[in-house]
């Protein structure tokens, strides 16, 4: 069997592994969470790390038992992320925090990266901080279908960056399926990030749609360099969200296992929790 099932059946003094299906399932009782979480979060927490491709399985469960006993494969986007994943498991990190941490392990100064849904600009700002440092001028291509979103991103960048840094973020009011029209043909793109759904604080009827999301994923696949990452946070709480998740998953499941590692993180007892998905090109 390929994966592990970890049961914390009582306090940390009593935990066992058993092999089961192709996914890792974690059920953590309140006694353990008591040491870790604020009072408001003391409920049973269920969490699943599921490889989208069979050979893309990462032995997360063994890390949770003892982070020093083994490590993720060196070419895995999760390498070095054990603490972050444990924080996510214990409800201390959001899906977007996890995505940002994974980006940090992949993106280098001077890289070209794409924010395919720039919205309020938080992801674009995070990306800019990863690619630029004065001596290395990386570029962020930030796309959104809504003019409102670009105005918000622009405002955030205005408040947060100096004039040199601002030049490194290129804003485009286009659908992300057209990303190849704006990113230079010779650019080596290390990260394409999608934060799907609607603009928080904006018009909830303007959402990402399965058909264009699929076209955008295909474009991202074409322009991503080896060693690059397609990062997707999927929201399933709004109409069309579940269908979009299925579209993303089936796109990922078709990627060839020799060249791609595809993985999703999913809360099991919060049916509408955002789902981070990572597609790493070896
Ligand atoms: C969850 S928000 C993004 C949040 C953003 N990354 C941030 O850091 O604030 C989703 C965004 O996707 C945008 N969007 C919807 N359809 C799109 C499309 N086809 N192409 C590009 N952006 C799209 C929406 O306008 C919205 O701003």
UniProtKB/TrEMBL annotation:
UniProt superkingdom: Eukaryota
The record's annotation in Gene3D superfamilies points to: Vaccinia Virus protein VP39
Pfam name, any one: rRNA_methylase
> Which SUPFAM superfamilies does the protein's record reference?
S-adenosyl-L-methionine-dependent methyltransferases
InterPro entries for the chain: MnmM_MeTrfase, SAM-dependent_MTases_sf
Chain segments annotated as coiled-coil in the UniProt record: none
Instruction: Give the transmembrane ranges.
Output: none
Return the PANTHER family for the record. S-ADENOSYL-L-METHIONINE-DEPENDENT METHYLTRANSFERASES SUPERFAMILY PROTEIN, TRNA (MNM(5)S(2)U34)-METHYLTRANSFERASE, CHLOROPLASTIC
Name of this chain's protein: YtqB
What's the source species' lineage?
Eukaryota, Viridiplantae, Streptophyta, Embryophyta, Tracheophyta
